[in-house]
Amino acid sequence: MRNMTEGRPSSLILSFSLPLLAGNVLQQAYNLVDSLVVGNFVGKEALAAVGGTFIVNFLLVSLFAGLGMGFSIVISQFFGAGKRDRVKAAVDTGYASSLVGAVPVTLAGILLAGPLLRALNVPAGLTMEMSNTYLTILFIGTIGSFGYNLNAGILQGLGDSMSSLAFLAVATVLNIALDLLFVAVFGWGVAGVAWATVVSQTVSFFLGTAHIVRKLKLTSLRAREFRFDPPILRECARIGLPGGFQNMLFSLGTMAIQRLINGYGPSFMAAFSISGRLDSLAFMPIASFASAVTTFVGQNTGAGRLDRVLRGHRATQLMSLAVCVAVSVSVILSARTLMGLFTDDREVIENGAQVLFRLMPAYFMLSIFFNLNAAIRGTGESVFPFFASLSSFLLTRMPAAYLLDHFFGKNEIGWCFGLGWIVGLSVALPYWFAGKWKKRIPSKNLQIAST
């Protein structure tokens, strides 16, 4: 556990974000290895299935993902205020919510997988069959996914990024080994990739829970000692559910864009899928700095340190922006080489490179926008980041993708990302400088939840 209310903000945020970055690399390794294995051992239909179904899974788990973020922020504020008993109550409440919430999501996912894939315009035949198999197995493992993400949020709120990294490292190595075993040796195809992910996430969930119970002693999970706290759940929902709804809307918008992509067939689907994987890799430093600044701001909000909130946000923006520019330039210069790591299909490589050439020049705006929203969320303000993200994605990026495709062709769709970030920044920056979010420091949620 790390107290981020004392010490140099830039050093604290950097040292906290580096394990998060390593963890994000390992997290993306799940998806990258899945794509590499099926792309090389099965074929482009399998590659399209693995890449094109992620957003459906994300749609149905996004509400709980937002709630998990709420738990992380509330725990960071309790920890910053020195209220360990409230931290324990929040941990218990989080586990109870995970166990209960996983059941309906699992059932809904299994029942709705087919209809959602058809709504996405996934090509009939082998691609549809593989997509349905992959998605159904992922939903069977919902409890492992929920549990892993909750544990990561708990540890992040406590300022502990190293433990999550260790558990994720074990899961990633296991996932790679099982991918190769199930697909290359057993010949299970996309089903093998899905089962490898489910088993790996579940193992990581159990390891993280054992650490929280035995070493940190933040819960015992014994029924007679369990403390489910409705006020804490309500506060976590207030903070986290707008982000969850944002993720749902993001998923729906992405599904609409994916439907547009799917209309061009497996080759363009595979190209967009691979460029999306590379986009995710480039995004990892931004996501790591954003997670770090959320925890930093959360702890200092709990401690009532507005001065440190401002210094921490400024330092994060500078570090994230510098890394983002370097990564963006590297991806642009090596786009075709990077695409070639996943496939030798020249059409897929060229289509994917064209997407990256249009996406990466605007990436610096995403860095500013994402870290700005992350800092605001850390104070406990959740509605405005939701509105800013809604304006950026659903109201701008999604319609822009269709308009660019209609007037200029499929290769120009990549410009829709930058257009969305311009709109998002035009909403978020005036709000930040107006300073209304400062009223959250000290955050009133501590008073509510401790009554």
Task: Give an account of the 3D structure.
The protein is mainly alpha-helical and 451 residues long. It has one domain. Helix content is 82%, strand content 0%. It contains 17 helices and no strands. The chain is globular, with a radius of gyration of 21 Å. 57% of the residues are buried. Mean pLDDT is 85; it is low at 443-451.
Short structural summary:
The chain is mainly α and 451 residues long.
**3D shape:** globular
Biggest β-sheet, characterized? none
- Low-pLDDT ranges: 443-451
Number of helices: 17
Which band does the percent of strand residues land in?
under 5%
Order of helices and strands: HHHHHHHHHHHHHHHHH
Number of strands: 0
Oligomer: single chain
Tell me the span between the first and last alpha carbons. Answer: 25 Å
Radius of gyration: 21 Å
Number of domains: 1
Mean pLDDT: 85
> Helical amount among residues, as a percent range?
over 70%
Class inferred from helices and paired strands: mainly alpha
What is the strand and helix layout of this fold?
Layout: H1 9-41, H2 44-52, H3 54-80, H4 84-119, H5 126-140, H6 142-157, H7 162-185, H8 190-214, H9 230-262, H10 266-302, H11 306-333, H12 335-340, H13 346-359, H14 363-378, H15 383-408, H16 415-434, H17 445-449
Helix pairs in contact: 1-2, 1-7, 1-8, 1-10, 1-11, 2-5, 2-10, 3-4, 3-6, 3-9, 3-10, 4-5, 4-6, 4-9, 5-8, 6-8, 7-8, 9-15, 10-11, 10-13, 10-14, 11-14, 14-15, 14-16, 15-16
